[in-house]
């Protein structure tokens, strides 16, 4: 029988074509590898067609798509027969806004009954906005145009009236039936609108900028109980041994949540997907075994990155790429605030207005614009996912230092607003405030920081700043190229052994931008700056012929080095995503097809041009001993450092 605390884990990404029964077939092989636990992706019922499970629609049900509870129990039994345990991924922060909506029964009822619904308190909705309605900017046009075009029509579902928009259904509140779809839509507890108007219509908290994931108020005891009952029961029955917590920084009170989970499971092994930035450490008061290991990726990378910053700096700046990483990050955070997070910024502004009213400040017609400017400037200067200010508790020293640093940076950038940032500093550090609006501000600001960091840094900066892309990883730090250092790894290992000996270590996950082998090959290649420049030269020449900007071409070059040989479609699909995430020349919502085709043409040239292929292949052959050493050293370090190593090989 396996121990309840893992020694090592093997991550399995479950989906309809690889469910519990298929996973059970792999158990003998996995046991032969020497692991102690299977680590499963989310197991609760997800949205129709989900391929990942992070879009839960029913917490009361083990996923039918994966085989249901009976197959999960059989999987656990098979694992136990081979001496293995089972840990699972938990998604406490959000649920799906699915298609069709009725797949999420709680959300369907809220949309039908509004604030009177028994589930209204489940979801993080700003009910004071839109006059007590839920904003649903999900249409491709205005409601009136949708009706005129015959896209928004009256229909029935389960013998009840509904509004239909293509495959999506919307509930109709009792007593609001009619013959005109537009009139019926206007009588509901939700406001339909074009997706283009989400900045002024969306009034529920999301996971990052994903409109189809609505935040759940798991900090409320009855919501926690309802959303965790099945998982806790499976743990008590010995089916599950532990839990990996997805995105704890989205929660109103991460530490409070972990305390609730500890109490409900009698102290089960729990790790958290926490991104640690710079020298940040996991709060030692948290009742958790530690992180899921992105900090291990960073520590290992710093110990193996070559001392070639000077040469790679020159090559990168010659492409025209921005040399100042912090400037790129700050600009990217400003851009995502403007383009992605206006709903979140607007809600913060509304909360700050309530704080001012509570403080007896006189009406001010310019207050909202001023507050938006202040909050936006402050958020542009954050450098970690969150400060942990818990209303009603003393603020820890690390959070005080973090908020002070952010306010000082904002004041330095906008000295004319220093008084405003000092005021915000006081409000955001007021853990002991008794003002409801003040407490809401503290919590909601914390919840907004993570999305700005994730989308501004990981999902924008890391697709713009290509000095050495192997360091552009989740929880990573591209500036480590300037600080190759084995002593930092030793210091990290000592801290882990002392404080988090049962935390997870990892190298590849379902979220990493590149696999560990790809990163290792690029790192090894960077140790040969002469070969690096010689191999880049023909790619650069091809980019100039094909009309592709050199910073993007430099990403193409490093991707080829890391993945060669790679299929054309896979490379094109990756470059499409990378170019759109960079948001320089094309985006997901404003596609520049001509630009993208030039990038794809460059990719095809690099794959089919014999001269380029020969240069790449000859260099990689020369690098093979270094690549092998770097790859094996990376894996050896992960497996032997303090912590519980996780292995993941994709879907």
From TrEMBL:
<protein>
    <submittedName>
        <fullName>GH13_26 / GH13 / GH13_20 / GH13_36</fullName>
        <ecNumber>5.4.99.15</ecNumber>
    </submittedName>
</protein>
<dbReference type="GO" id="GO:0047470">
    <property type="term" value="F:(1,4)-alpha-D-glucan 1-alpha-D-glucosylmutase activity"/>
</dbReference>
<dbReference type="Pfam" id="PF00128">
    <property type="entry name" value="Alpha-amylase"/>
</dbReference>
<dbReference type="InterPro" id="IPR012767">
    <property type="entry name" value="Trehalose_TreY"/>
</dbReference>
<keyword id="KW-0413">Isomerase</keyword>
<dbReference type="InterPro" id="IPR017853">
    <property type="entry name" value="GH"/>
</dbReference>
<dbReference type="GO" id="GO:0030980">
    <property type="term" value="P:alpha-glucan catabolic process"/>
</dbReference>
<feature type="domain" description="Glycosyl hydrolase family 13 catalytic">
    <location>
        <begin position="13"/>
        <end position="472"/>
    </location>
</feature>
<dbReference type="InterPro" id="IPR006047">
    <property type="entry name" value="GH13_cat_dom"/>
</dbReference>
<dbReference type="InterPro" id="IPR013797">
    <property type="entry name" value="Maltooligo_trehalose_synth_4"/>
</dbReference>
<dbReference type="GO" id="GO:0005992">
    <property type="term" value="P:trehalose biosynthetic process"/>
</dbReference>
């Amino acid at each position: 029988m396996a121990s309840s605390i893992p020694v090592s884990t093997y991550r399995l990404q479950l989906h309809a074509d690889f469910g519990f029964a298929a996973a059970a077939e792999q158990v003998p092989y996995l046991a032969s590898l020497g692991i102690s636990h299977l680590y499963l992706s989310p197991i609760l019922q997800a949205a129709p067609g989900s391929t990942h499970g992070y879009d839960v629609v029913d917490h009361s049900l083990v996923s039918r798509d994966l085989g249901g509870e009976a197959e999960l129990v059989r999987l656990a039994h098979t694992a136990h027969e081979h001496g293995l345990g089972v840990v699972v991924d938990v998604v406490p922060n959000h649920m799906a806004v699915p298609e069709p909506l009725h797949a999420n029964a709680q959300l369907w009822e809220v949309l039908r009954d509004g604030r009177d619904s028994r589930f209204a308190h489940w979801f993080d909705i700003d009910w004071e906005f839109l006059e007590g309605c839920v904003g649903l900017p999900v249409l491709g046009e205005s409601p009136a145009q949708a009706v005129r075009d015959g896209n928004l029509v009256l229909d029935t579902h389960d013998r009840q009236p509904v509004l239909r928009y293509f495959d999506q259904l919307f509930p109709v509140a009792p007593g609001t039936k009619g013959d005109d779809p537009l009139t019926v839509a206007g009588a509901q507890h939700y406001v339909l609108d074009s997706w283009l108007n989400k900045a002024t219509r969306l009034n529920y908290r999301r996971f990052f900028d994903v409109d189809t994931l609505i935040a759940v108020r798991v900090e409320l005891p009855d919501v926690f109980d309802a959303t965790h009952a099945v998982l806790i029961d499976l743990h008590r029955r010995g089916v599950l041994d532990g839990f990996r917590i997805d995105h704890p920084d989205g929660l109103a009170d991460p530490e409070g949540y972990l305390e609730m989970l500890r109490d409900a499971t009698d102290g089960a092994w729990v790790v958290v997907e926490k991104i640690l930035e710079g020298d940040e450490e996991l709060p030692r008061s948290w009742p958790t075994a530690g992180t899921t290991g992105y900090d291990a990726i960073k520590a290992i990378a710093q110990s193996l990155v070559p001392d070639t910053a000077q040469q790679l700096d020159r090559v990168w700046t010659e492409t025209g790429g921005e040399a100042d990483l912090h400037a790129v990050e700050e600009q990217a955070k400003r851009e995502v605030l403007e383009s992605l997070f206006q709903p979140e910024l607007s809600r913060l502004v509304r909360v700050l207005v309530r704080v001012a009213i509570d403080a007896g400040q006189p009406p001010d017609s310019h207050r909202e614009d001023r507050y938006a400017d202040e909050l936006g400037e402050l958020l542009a200067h954050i450098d970690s996912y969150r400060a942990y200010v818990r209303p009603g508790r003393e603020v820890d020293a690390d959070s005080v230092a973090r908020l002070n640093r952010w306010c000082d940076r904002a004041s330095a950038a906008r000295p004319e607003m220093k008084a405003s940032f000092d005021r915000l500093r006081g409000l955001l550090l007021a853990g002991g405030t008794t003002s409801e609006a003040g407490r809401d501000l503290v919590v909601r600001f914390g919840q907004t920081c993570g999305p700005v960091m994730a989308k501004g840094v990981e999902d924008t900066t890391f697709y713009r700043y290509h000095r050495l892309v192997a360091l552009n990883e989740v929880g990573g730090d591209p500036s480590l190229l300037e600080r190759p250092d084995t002593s930092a790894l030793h210091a990290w290992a000592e801290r882990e052994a002392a404080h988090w000996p049962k935390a997870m270590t990892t190298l590849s996950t379902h979220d990493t931008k590149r696999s560990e082998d790809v990163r290792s090959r690029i790192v090894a290649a960077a140790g040969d700056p002469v070969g690096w420049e010689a191999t880049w030269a023909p790619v650069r020449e091809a980019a100039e012929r094909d009309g592709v900007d050199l910073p993007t071409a430099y990403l193409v070059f490093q991707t080829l080095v890391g993945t060669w040989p790679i299929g054309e479609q896979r490379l094109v699909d990756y470059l499409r995503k990378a170019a759109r995430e960079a948001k320089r020349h094309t985006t997901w919502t404003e596609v520049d097809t001509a630009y993208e085709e030039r990038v794809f043409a460059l990719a095809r040239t690099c794959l089919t041009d014999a001269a380029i292929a020969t240069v790449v292949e000859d260099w990689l052959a020369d690098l093979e001993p270094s690549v092998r050493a770097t790859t094996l050293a990376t894996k050896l370090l992960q497996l032997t450092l303090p912590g519980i190593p996780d292995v993941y090989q994709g879907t």
